[in-house]
Specification:
Layout (H helix, E strand, L loop, with lengths): L7 H8 L16 H4 L16 H16 L3 H13 L4 H10 L2 H7 L6 H9 L3 E3 L2 E2 L12 E4 L7 H4 L14 E4 L4 E4 L14 H8 L2
Antiparallel strand pairs: 1-2, 1-3, 3-5, 4-5
């Protein structure tokens, strides 16, 4: 599936919930989903009861769009989770949470995952002191994330120095506001991942 170029608020309306794709706007009264949760389109919501397949597909699409992952990428993550030890659904969420772009977002260095992907792709983020430009880079416990030295003079990062993440910091991460750097302490437990999805439905979708 190619890159989506339409209005991202339509994606939130299609899923019937906020996916927090527009950064700070999603937390204000200007968010379109706060006013209208009906699916986009001229025909409005369907009156038919969705099939079991449709329910599972919708859950998969919701999680994929929440993290901004392409279809092929998402399928690979599921295959990795299925072959790893532990609960497949939880391992899938852990893989998505430890993507570099998601960590940049969780640390408060970007207001959305899309903005975080842009920071990574433009070479502003380093892992263990080395610049990484791959948003899908997966981090392991003990690895550090920070802003490249040459990028700290940018106005965006100067405004963040000394400030804690605005939406709170997950327990599995640590962050030092003065140096704009953080570290992965451990893999997140399921209760630490605030993603409103039923991952078991996604496991059932790929197991059909």
């Amino acid at each position: 599936m190619g890159r989506y170029h339409g209005a991202v608020c339509r994606l939130c309306r299609r899923e019937g919930m906020k996916l927090y794709l527009k950064g700070e706007k999603c937390y204000t009264d200007k968010c379109p989903v706060a006013k209208d949760t009906t699916p986009p389109g001229m025909h409005g919501p369907s009156r038919r009861k969705p099939s079991d397949f449709a329910v599972r597909l919708r859950e998969k699409q919701r999680l994929r769009r929440f993290y901004g992952v392409y279809e092929d990428q998402f399928k690979r993550y599921f295959q990795m989770a299925a072959h790893a030890k532990g609960v497949t659904g939880t391992r899938l969420l852990q893989l998505l949470e430890t993507r570099l772009d998601n960590l940049v977002y969780r640390l408060g260095l970007a207001t959305s995952r899309k903005a975080a992907r842009q920071l990574v792709a433009h070479g502003h983020i380093a892992v263990d002191g080395r610049k990484v430009t791959i948003p899908a880079y997966l981090l392991k416990p003990g690895q550090a994330v920070g802003v490249v030295q040459g990028s700290r003079e940018l106005a965006h990062f100067k405004a963040l120095v000394g400030n804690a993440p605005g939406r709170g910091l997950p327990a599995w991460l640590e962050y030092t506001p003065d140096t704009l750097s953080g570290r992965v302490l451990t893999l997140p437990a399921r209760e630490d991942i605030d993603v409103p999805v039923h991952e078991q439905l996604i496991v059932e979708y790929y197991s059909r």
